[in-house]
Design a protein that fits this description.
Elements (H helix, E strand, L loop, with lengths): L2 E5 L4 H16 L3 E8 L4 H17 L3 E6 L2 H8 L3 H20 L3 E3 L4 H13 L13 E5 L2 E4 L7 H8 L3
Parallel strand pairs: 1-2, 1-4, 2-3, 4-6
Antiparallel strand pairs: 5-6
Helix pairs in contact: 1-6, 3-4
C-alpha cells in the first residue's frame, strides 16, 4: 500500500506495532497514520492513554487522529452492548479517516493470544466450521480497503519481550 492506518490503543501490542510499522513504512516509502479512540469508559486513565498515543506517534513522526466519544451513552441510546458499540464507533472512525486521507489499509494489533481467545469464544458459542478459522490475517473493509493483522502469529509474551527493545 502507499498508505497505512494503525488502530492505536496505546497498549503493548499496538505500541509494538507502531514502532515496527514506523520503521517498515519509512524504508518502503509508505505513509503511516495512527488513530486512537477514547471510548470514555475508563476516565482519567483513558485520557492518559490518549495523550501517550499522541506523543508516541509524534515522536516517531506519525500523524495521530483522535476521537473522544461517550460510548456508554451511545450504547444506552442504541440499546446495544458497550463492547459492540465501541467496535462500531472505532471502525466508523477508521473508515472516515481512510476515506479522507485516501488510506488503503488498516493495521490492527491482534496477536496469537487474541486469535486463540476468539476461537475459544466462538467454540463456546457453538460456532460452525466457518467460525473456527479465528481472526483472518486480512479482510476486506469495503471500497477497496483492507484490514491487516501483521502480528497475528506472535504470542503476547513474545510481544512483551520485544517491547523492551524500544
Amino acid at each position: 500500500p502507499k498508505s497505512l492506518l494503525l488502530a492505536y490503543s496505546g497498549g503493548a501490542d499496538s505500541s509494538f506495532l507502531l514502532h515496527l510499522l514506523a520503521s517498515w513504512c519509512k524504508s518502503n516509502a509508505v505513509k503511516l497514520f495512527a488513530a486512537h479512540v477514547n471510548h470514555s469508559i475508563r476516565g482519567d486513565e483513558a485520557l492518559r492513554d490518549r495523550d501517550f498515543c499522541v506523543e508516541s506517534a509524534r515522536t516517531l513522526g506519525v500523524e495521530c487522529f483522535v476521537l473522544d466519544d461517550d460510548v456508554p451513552a451511545l450504547a444506552r441510546e442504541s440499546k446495544k452492548g458497550v463492547e459492540e458499540t465501541a467496535r462500531e464507533v472505532r471502525y466508523e472512525f477508521f473508515r472516515e479517516i481512510m476515506e479522507e486521507e485516501d488510506i488503503e489499509a488498516l493495521a490492527t494489533a491482534h496477536n496469537a493470544d487474541d486469535n486463540l481467545e476468539t476461537l475459544v469464544f466462538r467454540l463456546t458459542r457453538g460456532s460452525g466450521a466457518r467460525g473456527l478459522i479465528g481472526i483472518p490475517e486480512k479482510r476486506a473493509l469495503g471500497g477497496g480497503k483492507v484490514a491487516i493483522r501483521p502480528i497475528l502469529s506472535i504470542k503476547k509474551e513474545e510481544l512483551l519481550d520485544m517491547c523492551s527493545q524500544f
